[in-house]
Amino acid sequence: MVRIVSVLLPLPLPEAFDYEEAEGLALSVGDRVLAPLGARLAAGVVTGLREGAGGNRPLKVVAERLPGPPLSPATVEFVQWAARYAADGPGLPLAIALRGARAPLPRPERLAVATGRPPARLTPARARVLEAAAAGPSPPADLARRAEVSPAVVKGLIDDGALELRLAPRPDGFGPPDLDTPAPPLNASQAAAAASLRGMIAEGGFQAALLDGVTGSGKTEVYLEAVRAALAADPEGQVLILLPEIALTQALITRVTERFGAPPGEWHSGIAPPARRQVWDAVAEGRCRIVVGARSALFLPFRRLALVVVDEEHDTSFKQEDGFIYQARDLAVVRAKLEGASVILASATPSLESLRNAETGRYRWLRLADRHGEARLPDIRLVDLRETPPDSGRWISPPLAEAMAETLAAGEQTLLFLNRRGYAPLVLCRACGEKLTAPDTDSWLVEHRYTNRLVCHLTGFSMPRPATCPHCGAADSLVSIGPGVERLEEEARALFPEARISVFSSDTVRSAADARALVETMEAGGIDILVATQAAAKGHNFPNLTLVGVVDADLGLRGGDLRAAERTFQLLAQATGRAGRRDRPGRALIQTWAPDHPVMQALQAQDRDAFVRTELYERELAGLPPFGRLAAVVVSGRDPQALEGFVRELAAAAPNAEGVEVYGPADAPLALVRGRRRKRFLVRADRQVDLSAYMAAWKARVKPRGSIRLSVDIDPYSF
Ligand code: ADP
Q: How far apart (Å, rounded) are the C-alpha atoms in residues 456 and 483?
């Protein structure tokens, strides 16, 4: 009797393939193997094993197991679950899970070791080196430094045969965590929340908690206590902490390292391949017990996951929008469920989905109503731009300018928040009215003055700012419309020439190191005014920051997105929440043309619950998330006629199902990108409908031809 092995390959294929297991290989689910694929061998993962005959045609044989740790069976199950959820093939999430498995290991280190053979000549310097070498293998440069000699002395001893060089793998530094490091004493509400989380972890099995605490309430201290409890409860248990932004990882890594005496594994797109490989191996082997990472860390091959923390759980960066489309917060809950682990979702402004789960008792609801210690929540005031508008061509209103002057005079810091990169979001020709866009694309070119280019934020296209209008040829007719952070910086400089002003956006802060440097300068008081996009508006604590000015509060409310109000509320509550930490009271001024809008009213009254009630009520009436489900199908193609034909076919193929409504086709919000026209269907379903299964069934009825591409987005965010 042979065994049949199902092997999943990290490729866009609909399913795993069956092979025959070579004799004596004794494979298990999760093993990484080389499997024949056409004329070549492809690396894949075993997803199933069964006894059987080969069927009517002979199967190819899997003959080789790859070196290195396997994936845990729960990781394999999670990958398959994620694919089903996204109505996509399982090869794509597997590819994410294997990112790191095949990266090169760091080059081995060369260590000098004493051979015991005496050198030809023994000088005092050489004697010191040999004495230092007796302590154990060490890099030659270290040895020279410890013995206080020049590197040439060490080299001489190697040439003489008294020392020899050996190659040693580079250690990854993932030691066992120290669970007894003293932590700061928790205040009463923190202690109550921590006790509840400890209780949850002690009970074991899958459970979820929403850690819902105002900005500065000390949520991090609380969940670190839960991390400690989870690590203590299971000596092999592992913890994953997910963050929405790479820029926030450094601060947390420092805190985790201090708290547990060893650095956590760090996982995001900025990590170099060799370090990636070390983390991957150590996670799969169970040696790395704490990982701090961005959304893709969810696909790491944890051997025994005990706890997942999703910090800033409301953040839309947890939604992966291209390639394999998923919402990492939702999948974190699924992963915890499959592993029988606990999950903690933390935020000052939780998503309506999570609040609803807390309200209905599916999640433990832990609230921290006050800031830690003496710190108070900021005073929030709306600036009605209809009454006190800025001068023409300016964006800082007189009341905001006055508050900035006071803050500057008091030696305190201001954050000017504007969620727009670059200098101006639009360049327009005064002569012909043309708005400049990237070639064959609907989105405007954004003017960047630091680099003196016009950039398409969607496609990455860029060009120098032209002297004449590319459309009508008029000279000196192009004007920059509207502000970005660079233009705001210019305005702030004109108002306060003596102030030290910096810009924090993804253009000025390109790496985790840049972010750390800027945050440190800010903390050390080296900046008076920080002009920032959302890159700086979340997570950070700046003790001397007492004024937050929101320059264009209405920005996110334009456009017809279901979550526009929710998102604007979250973003502005987070941004204004940066003001006033520790002992200095803070204030926030919100510039708006619509001070009566429910979002502005809720922000001013600091009444999140009222906003949430109204918003949930409206969603319930419309059967929208979290009361119903949504999905989108986006179809794109180069040939408009072929696309029309396919879209009609797709519309006709939509299965009829109870509780499901299909809307469209309509132009997608960006109807033309890089020459591809885009059409979209929206699907709304009642909560009890398995919308993933519906979308998969629909997709299976059609076959995109030629240049046509189809993608399904479960729970779409941008529309
Ligand atoms: P949140 O994540 O809720 O915004 P943090 O966990 O970042 O808040 O805490 C805000 C600030 O208060 C941090 O500077 C943190 O070090 C401090 N802090 C929180 N809890 C305590 C505590 N129990 N003892 C001392 N400092 C604390």
A: 16
Query: How would residue 514 be classed by pLDDT, with cut points 50, 70 and 90?
Result: confident
**For residue range 572-583, what is the model confidence (pLDDT) as tens digits?**
999 998 888 767
For every residue of 213-274, DSSP letters joined together read: E-TTS-HHHHHHHHHHHHHHH-TT-EEEEE-S-HHHHHHHHHHHHHHHSSPPEEESTTS-HH
Nearest residue CA, atom 2 of ligand 1?
219
pLDDT digits (tens, 9 = 90+) for 667-706: 998 899 999 999 999 999 999 999 999 999 999 999 999 9
Which residue owns the Cα nearest ligand 1 atom 6? 218
**Of residues 229, 185, 169, the one with CA closest to residue 203:** 229
User: CB of 220 closer than 6 A to ligand 1?
Assistant: yes
> Which residue in 329, 287, 289 sits closest to 306, CA to CA?
289
Three-state secondary structure string covering 261-281: CCCCEEECCCCCHHHHHHHHH
Q: Which pLDDT score, from 0 to 100, does residue 560 have?
A: 66
Question: Which residue ranges are tagged as binding site for Zn(2+)?
Answer: 429, 432, 456, 469, 472
The residue nearest atom 4 of ligand 1, judged by CA position, is: 216
Ligand 1 lined by 347 (C-beta under 6 Å): no
Q: pLDDT tens across 13-48, in order? A: 888 999 999 999 999 999 999 999 989 999 999 999
Taking the centre of ligand 1 as the mean of its atom positions, its distance from the CA of residue 209, in whole angstroms, is 19
Please give the C-alpha separations between residue 719 and each of 4, 22, 208, 498, 710, in angstroms, as whole numbers. 45, 51, 30, 43, 16
Nearest to 654, CA basis, from 681, 685, 678: 681
577 lines ligand 1 (CB under 6 A): no
Ligand 1 binding pocket includes 335 (Cβ within 6 Å) = no
Cβ–ligand 1 distance for 541 under 6 Å, the answer yes
ipTM: 0.97
pLDDT-based confidence at residue 102 (cuts at 50, 70, 90): confident
Pairing of strands 478-481, 426-429: antiparallel
Closest of 634, 673, 697 to residue 87, by C-alpha: 697
Cis bond before residue 626 (omega within 30° of 0): yes
CA of 603 to the centre of ligand 1 (A): 23
- Is residue 508 scored above 90 in pLDDT? no
Map tokens 């779409």 to a residue: 716
